[in-house]
Design brief:
Pfam families: HU-CCDC81_bac_1, HU-CCDC81_bac_2, SPOR. With 330 residues, this protein is an alpha+beta fold. Among the domains are: 124 residues, HU Protein, Chain A (Irregular), CATH 4.10.520; 74 residues. It has 8 helices and 10 strands. Helix 1 packs across helix 2 and helix 2 packs across helix 3.
């Protein structure tokens, strides 16, 4: 069974914000590569910050426990509350709370302090990008140019034999190319030949069949049963089903239930395709704020309505969504 810290580490590698109800929230911040003046370029990196005021329950951690241990929502919330209680007892005793590759907590003058681990899990994907040391061009050693003698230099012309050989080779290459162009490579019978042979054979077979049929039984009247059969076959053909278009929302609500956070709009559309392939038929929307593309299933005008729907989704064990959380759009 995974510990609570392992669940938090896993969620931090997939989301920008992970909330522990009753304790606080970790927020992942990213910085792009920096190239400033003559200083060495710095690689991109990510780091963690902690906000104790964000302690509302978004259900992400509880849903992770439910999925890993097969327990119910109430049991998962009880496990989280017990773990948070043990952390508070350790801080009251003056001890430091170590949370694996996330960091540690301590208290100083009644304030809760968080120190990120040097082996932070959020920076694992960028750990192989060290700072690059570049030498300015002005400090690089200059190579001396080769001395070029001045004056005219005699140019040796090719011999007569070489020129004749080159001309003969060029003519031979042109002749071979013309032969390839003028001579057809594929000399197979055309479709017309096949059609004439098949038509002749069918005509002969049809004549023999009609003769035998005339001797065996009278020919029924033509044009009576054919239309009925044609209509019956046409009725049995399945109608082509048109794919249902994606539902678009013109105005983004104030609070939305997010089921996925993607770095681009194209990846959000691809995630919708994966949901559709897995059998999800609920309407899905995309909220793009310029930095992230949020994939959400519903929107509400008030936070209370959003929390009520969030709890209903979290209690649904058959829900196809993982880590549903509330996002404020404005």
């Amino acid at each position: 069974m995974k510990s609570m810290v392992q669940h938090i580490e896993y969620l931090l590698t997939r989301h920008d914000c992970v909330v522990v109800p009753g304790w606080g929230a970790w927020i992942v911040q990213s910085v792009s590569a920096v190239v400033a003046g003559n200083a060495a370029p710095l690689p991109p990196r990510r780091w963690l910050s902690f906000n104790a005021s964000l302690s509302h329950n978004d259900g992400m951690l509880a849903h992770s426990l439910m999925r890993a241990e097969g327990c119910g929502y109430d049991e998962a919330m009880a496990q989280i509350a017990a773990e948070v209680s043990s952390w508070r007892v350790a801080l009251q005793d003056g001890r430091c709370v170590e949370l694996g590759n996330i960091g540690s907590f301590s208290t100083e003058e009644g304030l809760l302090l968080f120190k990120e681990s040097p082996r932070s899990v959020v920076n694992a994907s960028l750990a192989m990008l060290p700072p690059v040391a570049l030498t300015p061009l002005a400090e690089m050693p200059q190579e001396e140019a080769d001395d070029v003698p001045s004056g005219w230099q005699p140019v040796q012309e090719p011999s007569l034999a070489r020129r004749v050989f080159a001309a003969v080779a060029s003519v031979a290459a042109i002749v071979v190319l013309l032969l390839f162009i003028s001579t057809p490579i594929d000399n197979y019978p055309t479709q017309n030949d096949y059609a004439s042979i098949v038509a002749a054979e069918l005509f002969a077979a049809s004549s023999q069949t009609q003769a035998v049929t005339a001797e065996a039984a009278p020919v029924p009247e033509s044009g009576v049963e054919t239309p009925a059969v044609a209509v019956a076959v046409a009725d049995e053909l399945p109608a082509k089903r048109e794919p249902a278009p994606e539902v678009a929302m013109d105005v983004v609500p104030r609070y939305i239930l997010v089921v996925g956070s993607l770095p681009s709009y194209a990846l959000a559309e691809k995630q919708i395709g994966q949901f559709r392939a897995s059998g999800v038929t609920d309407p899905l929307y995309i909220y793009d704020n310029g930095g992230k593309s949020r994939l959400y299933i519903a929107g509400y005008a008030t936070l209370a309505e959003a929390q009520q729907h969030l709890e209903a989704v979290q209690r649904d064990a058959a829900s196809p969504y993982e880590g549903v959380w509330i996002c404020r759009t404005r």
